[in-house]
Amino acid sequence: MIFLPTQSLILAGVLFAIGLATVLVKRNLFFVLMGVELMLNAANLSFVAWSRTFTGSAGLDGQVAPLFSIAVAAAEACVGLAMLLAIFRSKETLDTDRFDRMKE
Amino acid sequence: MIEQVYFAIFAVVALCCALGVLVSRHPIQGAMSLIGVMVALSGIYSLMASPFLATLQILVYAGAIMMLVVFVIMVLNSAKDSSTPRFDLHACVGVVPALVVGAVICRLVWAWHALDGNRVQEALAKEPAARGTVEAISKVLFGGRETSGWAILFLAVGLLLLTAIVGAVLLAKRRLDKPPATPAPSHGGHA
Q1: Does residue A104 belong to any structural domain of this protein?
Q2: In whole angstroms, what is the distance from residue B132 CA to residue A53 CA?
Q3: Within the 33-62 window of chain A, which residues sit less than 8 Å (CB to CB) from chain B?
Q4: How many angstroms away from the CA of A100 is the closest CA of chain B?
Q5: A75 part of a folded domain
């Protein structure tokens, strides 16, 4: 029987791959942001799973790191959505294929 | 044994919802699927002895961040996925590196499990069930060991969040110096 951290690590790897596929395949900026969030979640899950493989209080560092990851994800979502609003205001679209020049 | 059953349920929910993010057409459907992923991951966290992180996952991710995303989707309202087809050459090319990354990660985890898994599993069998409580985590963050730099990092994260708030306000506000090109009729007397 495979124990829980290994299963979680494999789940985290699959979730990371799905998030990466979302970022690469989708043409809508919202989906790109959500793919990034999915990858961040997979990384957090991997932190927690590795922390579970350490005994005693040594593994608790692995549960503190996701706190900072979550805070940075909140900042990223905040700034990312503000940028998305600014892009939509100037381009009237969220299709990433249309963003082929930096200006205008 | 019972935790294996719970883990299987949560893992299936998380995978199905993640695939839902990948294949859904409208961003609202994707956001709802992503909330499903986060709730399922919260369950997995609590299975792995970290109730504090499980709570925080619901509070911050499913509560705050996804609320912001859904709110902006509803504000923009013209956010349909583009007219390009979902499964074309570009999509297939995009899936290939994701498959490669996922396969490499799973292979590495499996190699670690074959090398070290049994020893860790035996050591974990003697551990107490819940250890990631608020008390234990705050001891790691703020007290105890002199060498840990988590407290300084905590202050830095506060500064980062403040910067992000200011940056978001500056990015999202309209330019004050130049008036909008076509004044909206609904804002009539306001302008």
Answers
A1: no
A2: 13
A3: 33-35, 37-38, 41, 44-45, 48-49, 51-53, 55-57, 59-61
A4: 15
A5: yes
Give me the domain span that covers residue A51.
Answer: 6-98
CATH of the domain at A16: 1.10.287.3510
Q: Looking at residue B91, what is its pLDDT?
A: 76
- ipTM of this complex prediction, to 2 decimal places: 0.91
pLDDT > 90 fraction of chain B, expressed in percent and rounded: 39
Q: What is the pLDDT of residues B88-126, one digit of tens each?
A: 777 788 889 999 999 999 999 989 888 887 777 777 777
Report the domain count for chain A. Answer: 1
Instruction: Kindly tell me the burial class for residue A82, based on how many C-beta atoms sit within 10 Å of its own C-beta (0-12, 13-18, 19 or more).
Output: buried
Could you tell me if residue A37 is inside a domain? yes
In the beta sheet, which residues pair with residue A95? A28
Q: Is residue A81 part of a domain?
A: yes
Q: Which of residues 61-90 of A touch B (CB under 8 A)?
A: 61, 63-64, 66-68, 70-79, 81-86, 88-89
pTM of the model: 0.87
Q: How far lies B36's CA from each of A78, B13, B100, B121, in Å?
A: 21, 7, 25, 30
